[in-house]
Each structure stands twice: as C-alpha cells, then as structure tokens.
C-alpha cells in the first residue's frame, strides 16, 4: 500500500470518527435545548397595557375597545399593527438558554442598567410582567434578559432588541 493511499485512508477514518461523534453526541445535546418562550402563558389578546422604557424615553400604551392609545408627552392614537407586531415579538421570543441562576452581579450581563425595559399588563392580573434587556452576547446574536422577580438570567435572540429599538413616533405612525 502506497504512503499516499495510507494517509488518505487515515484521514477518511479520522473524519468518520469525528462525524460519528457529532451525530451521536452533539446532535442529541441540541435536541434537549428548550422550546420554552421567554414569557409563557400570555396571548396577545390578553394584553391591555404596555410600558416601554429606553433611556429617558418612556412610552405607555393602553388598549380600549380594540384600539391602542399612546401616552407620553401627549395622548395619541396608537398604530395597532405596529404595536401588536412589537408585542408579538416579545411573546414569541424564545428562551435560548438559561445562563445563570441567582446571579451575584447583574452588571455582568448589562442588566443592572438595562438598555430596555418592557412591561405588559394582562387581563389575568394587575401585576405587570417586566422584561429587562441587557447587553448583547460577545458575537451579537443574542441579548441577555431577565424577567423582574425571576432569579434566572437568560439569552434570547437579538431580534427582540432590534424590534423594540424604535422611536416614539413609530408607535403612532400610520
């Protein structure tokens, strides 16, 4: 057997071992990733109020008779489609991974001074569900988030940050 053939067969064998390892072990790990959402058991129709805070900007929206009103410096009619698209992005945000239970320092994730804070009130109670959105992960594909009152920091897709990074006019734009 020639040395070139022996080397090629050795490389093919190593490649097969690596592929086998991947398909047996790594793929099974990925199957155990959660399909859990960041916010569970809430539907769009249940939300009657939201509050969005980014820096010094605070936007509050309330739904009455199927229409949204935006409160800020002045009361305006909200753009139902834009607002409900944003709320859907929050409700459909997947919890990619729980990063840390009971973190000592939220500053590690940019959650001590979050970039955004989104609260929703539902028909199920008067206590809001508040999501704090912190820094992006090092590669920028995810953002760190925590639900106020929870003890678990999670990673969720960076689209949540992108979707909610809107100017106040966007909430009332036609």
Model description:
This protein starts with a helix and ends in a 10-residue tail after the last helix. The model is unreliable at 27-33 (pLDDT under 50). It contains three helices and nine strands, in the order αββββαβββββα. Strands 4-3-2-1-6-7-8-9-5 form a nine-stranded antiparallel β-sheet. The longest helix is centred in the N-terminal third of the chain and has 29 residues, at 3-31. By secondary structure, it is α+β, with helices and mostly antiparallel strands.
Q: In short, what is this structure?
A:
The protein has helices at 3-31, 80-91, 159-164, and strands spanning 47-54, 57-64, 67-71, 76-77, 95-101, 116-122, 129-136, 142-147, 152-157.
Round the mean pLDDT to the nearest integer and report it: 85
> Compute the gyration radius: what is it?
22 Å
Low-confidence stretches: 27-33
Shape: elongated
Report, as a whole number of angstroms, the end-to-end distance: 75 Å
Strand content: 25-35%
Strand sequence of the main sheet, in spatial order? 4-3-2-1-6-7-8-9-5
Protein structure class: alpha+beta
The DSSP helix count reads: 3
- The helix fraction, in percent, is 25-40%
Order of helices and strands: HEEEEHEEEEEH
Major sheet characteristics: 9 strands, antiparallel
Number of strands: 9
